[in-house]
Amino acid sequence: MTDTDTQHIVFTGLDNLMIKPGSIAVDELVDSLDFLRQNNIPLVITTCSVASEVLKAAAALNSRDPFIVEGGGAIYIPEETLSITYNYDHIEGGYRIVELGMTRDAITANVVELREEYGYPVYSLSEIQMDELSGLRDSIDPAILNSSIDRKYSGLVHFDNDKGSFVEFQTEAEARGLRIREYSDNFLITGDHDEGSALRFLVQLYREEYVDKKINTIGLGYSQQDAPILYAVDQAVLVRMPDGKFDSHVGRRGLKFTQIPGPEGWNQAVLAILTGEEG
User: Fold this and answer.
1) Helices 262-275 and 26-38: crossing angle, nearest 10°?
2) Are 261 and 241 in contact (CB under 8 A)?
3) What's the confidence (pLDDT) of residue 137?
4) Spatial distance between the Cα atoms of 204 and 194, rounded to a whole number of angstroms
């Protein structure tokens, strides 16, 4: 059992952690998921993905906990989760949505302005998908292209030029309050936030909810994509890759490593930390 004076919260990415090729790895995760539910420990999926994709994962996991989407652009909190009063922007599907990011339309407008003003060969995937730049469609993964339309607080862009030109574009974009990171074969642009800033916002709400308890945050990640999660939690875990290695781009003091890769390693790490049975 866990310490009754402590409220644990688990934050996790999805890809290569809770997802195996083709589906959610429910069978591999069942022991840890049952433990989290029995001990009322929130499992907060934290990802660059859109809400519709996270909702599918949450349904497969039988989870009704808050989640963070689009690189920290928004937090979805079930209406029944917190008893405290807090600000949110609107309600959708039984979730109170706290919007932290710039809208996709505003991001796209910035991309278009930078392209027109400086001549950078950068194109929003939503522009491509909506036939405004259909000539580029064949060079983009169809699944990524389709998902770009569902984004509300971030934008995917395709940059078609040398690295030097991209650095200049990135500098100009950051001057406008935008952040850029690699995402698949493209780039994800958000407002001035990431998963870590959204995580800290949600943790503060939990501190107000559980004023008589210590809050302990646990984060699990797989790659540099999950680094904002791992840098923002009390206990960070990096999950081993299928080849037995770890992403060397991720590093922080106190970082723990799983003994086995994938969902099985995720399951083992969660149970070990929460039961105090770490090796």
Assistant:
1) 20
2) yes
3) 59
4) 16
Question: What is the distance between the alpha carbons of residues 206 and 223, in angstroms, rounded to a whole number?
Answer: 27
Instruction: Give the full edge-to-edge strand order of the sheet including 154-159.
Output: 122-124, 154-159, 186-190, 179-183
Give residue 66's pLDDT band: very low, low, confident or very high (50, 70, 90): very high
- Close Cβ partners of 27 (under 8 Å, ≥ 6 residues apart): none
The two three-digit tokens of residue 73, written as one number: 């652009």
Q: Are 256 and 269 in contact (CB under 8 A)?
A: yes
> Which residue ranges form the domains of the chain, and what is each CATH number?
6-100+194-275 (3.40.50.1000), 104-190 (3.30.980.20)
Residue 79 has pLDDT above 80, yes or no: yes
* Mean pLDDT of all residues belonging to the chain: 89
Asked if 11 contacts 233 with a C-beta cutoff of 8 angstroms, the reply is yes
Q: What is the DSSP string of 73-111?
A: TEEEEETTT--S----SEEETTEEEEE-S--HHHHHHHH
The packing angle between helices 104-118 and 163-175, to 10°, is: 120
3-state secondary structure of 237: strand
CB 256 within 8 A of CB 237: yes
Report the alpha-carbon distance of residue 226 to residue 37 in Å, rounded: 24
127, exposed or middle or buried, with CB in 10 Å at 0-12, 13-18, 19+?
Answer: buried
SS3 4: coil
What is the rounded CA–CA span in Å between residue 245 and residue 173? 34
pLDDT for the residue numbered 134: 52
Residue 251 — pLDDT band, cuts 50, 70, 90?
A: confident
